[in-house]
Every structure is written in structure tokens, then in C-alpha cells.
């Protein structure tokens, strides 16, 4: 792509591309040393939107084009040709500013597999645990396996709700134990933890970035989309970004760190000449270094929902229809820091392995005390609740590919959902077990009708077809710049998160996951930011 005029700006030691869940962490930790100056370049605006601050605001920001990339996937054969809407944060704080606030680390054996099976030395559970703890400040929790002095507030849900308690009691009936240690490898259940401080969402931007923005060695460039990374031979030395149709160049003395997320990071690398030769040449991008794995290995959690009509007015649907209950909800939020406004959409969880022979069959069940026709729409006008389930470690993988050398053109996102037989089996078994939960004494007394999948669907093929027609993302794209050993043809970064074949360039965000973790991914992304920052510090003897 040609640029008629490029405005030259000052040189920085480190340039961080993306002020999201990982980028905010990296920039903050590098800025701790006043010897170095740091530039953060963010495509979106500042996180001043009131609905970012209020926890329940994820409903408002789900399709807010000002702070959301509003991606759509390609028609997916695994979903019977349906496109899938993928919200991704385009704002300071990234997805941590618009997500469902849940703080879950994943399972111990997720990280053991990163280390032992995939060959990323230094990324096992005992290696990453100190970085989880370094990031966390746990509230209302005595467990020493959580951090107590970190910047990221992690709050327990302190108010139980009748239906949520009944959901967990249903698990008791089926033999599951309660544990606040959601990272344990065995099947368990409990209430979620959330990134909430008082009455406010507490993103990594709040925790890490905002406190350092008044320092002389930190500059934040908002509304500034990076067009490409520039190289001298195979050394990354500068970036070009666009702000209000003006182009600017920033030079890096030491390193450029890409933290643009599982969609943005591979897109930027491809636009900069790193990726499959055939893809780059097809889009008239000069090849700097062939890295076949850029954009490949895309993993995401596909959720399938069981929805039930409730025979009692005790759901969020009912509160939404009653002005007096709404007033009480606001009162509880403003004066007691509690209630639905202050909590994630999913309150409680159960982990279940649908097939004991394979960890790939692990399912996370989330309980939501409401129903909605589809994510982002208004709550239904009747009493209802939802059991959402997703396969934690899917085998199916997709890809992210540029469609043009124009940075303004969205990439091609192909999830390739349900392409593997084990994923098909797991999602069907997830529905079957979800029904078992609903049929327990604890839950069945609240149910007047199964809305979906519907009682008439009970055969394997029927339930699989239901999933293909109605399943959707639960918003955890990852793994598109995977970390792996040098003999892995699809590895993009090494165990120090350095891009193979390129000097002074790293990727530090959810895209480096070699396999998706068994949970919501934000806490893991923050951990990656913490560990990635330390890897940089080690190289420069901070």
C-alpha cells in the first residue's frame, strides 16, 4: 500500500500495539523502568464510555461500533452455512472493556500440555501460577493460591441467588463437589469470580495502564490503527499508523510488541509481510519472512444453550419487566455494590468431562438466570433461565487471513466449527447432560417447559443438527500466532514470544496460546502479558 505522506514522530524504546488485556499489562510493566520510554498504539478510543464502567454494560456494548470491531465470520459449513457475529474490543482495555467480567484461569493440565506435550518450556502450571498471582488482588477469599497484592481486582460473587443455588444443588445430586478452585483438573462446580471493583468493571486498562499514563516515559496514541510493521532486512524497527486519515511513523530502538488480539495480531503480521507466501502474494504483500502458521490454528469455544421457561417470577427476565424490581436493582447496585448490575451474566459453573477417556471432551456449563432469543437482543418477556455449555478443548481449528493489502478491510475469519468428530460428540453429550441437570429434583420444580432444544429433539442427529443451527461463539478466539518449538511448521513465536526469523518483534496476547484453555480466556491473557513483560525485562536486564 502506498502512502502519500508519512509524518515522522519521535523514537521510543518499546512500541506496544494494542492497549487491551495483554498490551496494557506489557506497557505498564515496561514503564516501571524510567530508563526506557514506551508508546502504546490503540486503534480504538479511550475507555470513557459509561457502559464500559458499569458491569452490566456488556449488554449495551455488544454491538457498539464505536468500541467494537463487530466482526463476522465467513459462512461456516459446521454451522450449516451460518455466519457468526464476533464482538472484539476496539477501545482502551480491549475485550476486557466489553466482556462478561469472568475471571477463570483455565485448568492445570491446560498449561502442562503447553509445556510437556507441545514443547513450550517454562509454560507449565507451576511456571504460570506466579504470574496469575502477580496480577491478582483477590477479595473475599482466603485461598493462598490467589494473588493478594496485584493490580487486577478479582471479586467473589457474595450474593447467592435461588436459581443459581439450585443449579449447583443439581450438580450435588449428580455427585459434584463445590470448589472455589476453578483451576483444579477434576470435575467441580461453584460461583464465578469477577473483575469488579466496588461498582465498576476493573479491566487491565484500569488495573495497569491508567496508573502509568501520567508518567513522562509513557505515551498513549488512541484512534490510531497500525497499518504495517516495517523492517530493516529482518529486524523490526518501526510502525506506520493511521489517525484521522493521516499517516505517522514511530521508530523503535529496542522492540515492537504486537498485542492486537487473536484477529488483529495475525492480520497485522500478514499485512507486514509475515505469513504464508501464497496468501501474501495473492494480496500483493511483499514477503519479509514466510511463517505458514500466522493466522492458522484458530481456536474458539462454541456454546450451545438449553433454555427453560420458569414457573416462578424469580429470573432477570421478570426484574426487567417490573419497574419496582428495577428500582430495587439500581438501589442495591448504588448503595450496596451487589445485585445483577454488578455481576457477570454467568453466575455459576460446572465442569464435566462427557467422556472419561479424553480431556478434549471437557465441558463448561454456565448458568444464566435469564433467557434471550440470541446474544445482544432484549431479554424475553417471560420467566426463564439458560444453561449454556461449551467444549473446553475443541479439536476443530480454523484460520484468519487477510483479504486485501488494505488495512481497512476486515480479514477472513473461518472458525471451522464442529469439523472434528470428537467435537460433534462432545456438543451432543453436553446437551444430554444439560438435560440431566434440568431433570434433577433441585431444578425440575422450577421448569414449566423446555424451550430449546425442545423436548421433541432427542436423537444424536437431531441434537447435532440443533447445534449446527443455533450454536454460537462464547467469544474466546485464540491461538492464531501459536507458541511452539522451532520444528513446528505452524509455530509463529518461540517460548520467549519472539517471532521466528525476525529480530526485535514479539507477540504477546491470546493469539500465542498453542491450544485454547478450558475456560474464559481473559485471565490467561493477562497472565500472558505479565510473563511476556518479564521475558522482555530479562533480555534487557531490567
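-> sequence recovered:
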Amino acid at each position: 500500500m502506498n502512502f502519500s505522506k508519512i509524518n515522522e514522530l519521535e523514537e521510543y524504546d518499546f512500541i506496544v500495539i494494542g492497549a487491551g488485556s495483554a498490551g496494557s499489562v506489557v506497557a505498564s510493566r515496561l514503564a516501571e523502568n524510567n530508563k526506557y520510554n514506551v508508546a502504546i498504539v490503540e486503534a480504538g478510543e479511550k475507555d470513557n464510555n459509561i457502559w464500559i464502567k458499569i458491569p452490566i454494560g456488556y449488554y449495551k456494548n455488544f454491538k457498539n461500533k464505536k468500541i467494537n470491531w463487530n466482526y463476522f465470520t465467513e459462512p461456516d459449513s459446521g454451522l450449516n452455512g451460518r455466519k457468526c457475529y464476533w464482538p472484539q474490543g476496539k477501545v482502551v482495555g480491549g475485550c476486557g472493556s466489553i466482556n462478561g467480567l469472568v475471571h477463570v484461569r483455565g485448568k492445570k493440565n491446560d498449561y502442562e500440555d503447553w509445556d510437556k506435550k507441545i514443547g513450550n518450556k517454562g509454560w507449565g502450571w507451576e511456571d504460570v501460577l506466579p504470574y496469575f498471582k502477580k496480577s491478582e488482588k483477590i477479595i473475599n477469599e482466603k485461598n493462598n493460591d490467589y494473588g493478594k497484592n496485584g493490580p487486577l481486582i478479582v471479586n467473589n460473587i457474595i450474593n447467592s441467588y435461588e436459581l443459581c443455588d439450585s443449579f449447583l444443588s443439581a450438580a450435588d445430586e449428580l455427585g459434584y463437589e463445590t470448589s472455589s478452585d476453578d483451576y483444579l483438573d477434576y470435575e467441580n462446580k461453584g460461583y464465578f469470580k469477577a473483575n469488579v471493583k466496588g461498582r465498576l468493571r476493573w479491566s487491565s486498562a484500569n488495573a495497569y495502564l491508567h496508573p502509568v499514563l501520567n508518567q513522562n516515559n509513557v505515551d498513549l496514541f488512541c484512534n490510531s490503527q497500525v497499518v504495517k510493521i516495517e523492517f530493516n532486512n529482518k529486524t523490526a524497527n518501526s510502525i506506520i499508523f493511521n489517525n484521522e486519515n493521516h499517516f505517522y511513523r514511530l521508530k523503535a530502538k529496542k522492540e515492537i510488541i504486537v498485542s492486537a488480539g487473536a484477529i488483529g495480531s495475525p492480520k497485522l503480521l500478514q499485512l507486514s509481510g509475515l505469513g504464508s507466501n501464497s496468501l501474501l502474494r495473492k494480496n500483493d504483500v511483499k514477503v519479509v519472512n514466510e511463517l505458514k502458521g500466522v493466522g492458522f490454528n484458530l481456536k474458539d469455544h462454541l456454546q450451545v444453550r438449553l433454555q427453560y421457561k420458569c414457573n416462578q417470577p424469580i429470573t432477570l427476565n421478570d426484574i426487567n419487566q417490573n419497574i419496582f424490581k428495577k428500582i430495587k436493582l439500581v438501589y442495591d447496585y448504588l448503595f450496596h455494590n451487589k445485585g445483577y448490575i454488578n455481576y457477570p451474566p454467568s453466575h455459576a459453573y460446572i465442569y464435566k468431562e462427557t467422556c472419561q477417556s479424553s480431556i478434549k471432551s471437557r465441558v463448561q456449563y454456565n448458568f444464566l438466570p435469564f433467557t434471550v432469543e440470541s446474544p445482544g437482543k432484549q431479554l424475553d418477556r417471560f420467566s426463564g433461565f439458560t444453561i449454556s455449555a461449551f467444549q473446553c478443548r475443541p479439536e476443530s481449528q480454523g484460520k484468519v487471513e487477510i483479504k486485501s493489502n488494505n488495512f481497512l478491510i476486515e480479514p477472513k475469519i473461518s472458525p471451522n466449527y464442529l469439523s472434528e468428530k470428537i467435537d460433534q460428540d462432545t456438543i451432543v453429550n453436553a446437551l444430554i447432560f444439560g438435560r440431566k441437570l434440568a431433570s434433577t429434583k433441585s431444578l425440575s420444580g422450577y421448569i414449566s417447559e423446555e424451550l430449546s432444544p425442545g423436548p421433541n429433539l432427542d436423537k444424536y442427529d437431531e441434537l447435532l443438527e440443533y447445534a449446527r443451527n443455533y450454536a454460537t461463539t462464547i467469544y474466546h478466539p485464540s491461538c492464531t500466532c501459536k507458541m511452539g518449538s522451532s520444528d513446528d511448521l505452524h509455530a509463529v513465536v518461540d517460548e520467549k514470544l519472539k517471532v521466528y526469523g525476525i529480530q526485535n518483534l514479539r507477540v504477546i496476547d491470546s493469539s500465542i496460546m498453542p491450544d485454547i484453555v478450558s475456560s474464559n480466556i481473559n485471565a490467561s491473557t493477562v497472565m500472558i502479558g505479565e510473563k511476556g513483560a518479564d521475558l522482555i525485562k530479562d533480555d534487557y536486564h531490567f
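The first strand starts at residue 6 and ends at 17.
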